[in-house]
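Trying the structure run again after the queue cleared.
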Amino acid sequence: MKIKNPKDFWAGLMFIVFGLFFVIGARDYQLGSAARMGPAYFPTLLGGLMAVVGAAVFFRSFVLKGGGVAAFPLRLIFFITLSLLIFGYLLKPIGLVLALLCLVVISAFAGHEFRLKEALLLTFVLIVLSVLVFVKGLGLPFPLWPKFLS
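Done. Tokens:
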């Protein structure tokens, strides 16, 4: 068999692997029924559906012709991963506001062009929404500023 659509091949394979991961991971929990769902019901159902959709996409890759797979965006993955790691590491010591500033500015370097003005505007909006939703609305105990400033 020859792969005619590499995008569908890899996408289908990815869906199958992730779906089976959740189905297998939920095996140790009680499944329950549709009327009385157990903790394994939702991940098993969604994982199974994901694997079935993945199988359909996977087998379609051998039938329908399609485009190739694009180059792996290493720069994008590097800056997004770095910004998330730095955010997680700095959240407690410097607070939500400054950690979000670091997150947005560092992840902005992943784009094709970096504009500081746009990054700072996005940071401001993200900080306001995060404080309103997570701190005020949900009452999560995130520190907003470093301890020496509060």
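The two ends are 65 Å apart (CA to CA). Worth checking whether this holds up in the mutant runs.
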